[in-house]
Amino acid sequence: MALLNHQRPLWALLAAAPLIATVSSSAYAQTWKINLRDADLTAFINEVADITGKNFAVDPRVRGNVTVISNKPLNKDEVYDLFLGVLNVNGVVAIPSGNTIKLVPDSNVKNSGIPYDSRNRVRGDQIVTRVIWLENTNPNDLIPALRPLMPQFAHMAAIAGTNALIVSDRAANIYQLENIIRNLDGTGQNDIEAITLQSSQAEEIITQLEAMSATGASKDFSGARIRIIADNRTNRILIKGDPQTRKRIRHMIEMLDVPSADRLGGLKVFRLKYASAKNLSEILQGLVTGQAVSSSNNSNNSSNSSNPINSLIGNNQNSGSNTSGSNGASISTPAINLNGNSNSSNQNNITSFNQNGVSIIADNAQNSLVVKADPQLMREI
Known about the structure:
By secondary structure, this protein is an alpha+beta fold. The protein is 29% helix and 25% strand. 25% of the residues are buried.
């Protein structure tokens, strides 16, 4: 072991036999030059404790010899950084705990209370725990690629319910991992694409995509490589993700967004709880035609109505006469049973309307509306 000391006499060196030589350039800045060869690790820890003024609690399993070569003088902080590097090479970690620093084998680090570095201030070889937040990438997709880059004692896991990773490792290693994660998380995944549907409703398409996805857990696929959101106001689907995944989802949507093969595919039954089917039917008629429709007009023309079933399936051939008002709509009709016999006692229970691609039947007895319209008009209704 070579020792350099330019200030102490030779007899003092022989008496004290220090492991680390002191080199002072001035009275205010004391420095040390470290040259050790096969020195006892415990003795090295004692010397660093004297230099830095830190308290160390050494695990009994921390043993061995160290070799350190320093070509330039080091100040107090630099000595401690070098000390942490030497511990790293020898499989020992330093864990701050109050006023004491615990020195334990890295194989037992998970049980030693690793400190949480919330402000990312710790650097070097000190072991810490940090949370790394992701914006676009599923953390579970990154773990298989990042785990081989970490030492065996380090820990990495995805936080359930959030888009984040929790990592315990030396601060220098975590810093390198953060750079890799930032590059992976921001590659081509910020583009947003909007797809306008022609024949389907956005919520229905989202439901079908969920059924075909691997997870089927979330309507916006949060946390995955793709985010899909239904915009019901404009009947669009918003897609955010990388170009390849967006292309695949766009192709799936195009296959699903097709007109229904059923002629009654746009048929819906609305069972009303509070409003009157007759009154609401008149309001809808006015919205479709742009003209006011009165109840008295409906009652006066109740005997000249079309068959409501024909209006739903688009059949213009009626079994009876069909008298239209000024707006071309058939206003009321007698009740129709499946046997084709008219029931005069229920004559005023059903009224119908058919114009501008919209058919509305009001069943006053059941207080229900039967509506047939194309998807866009159906959404407005």
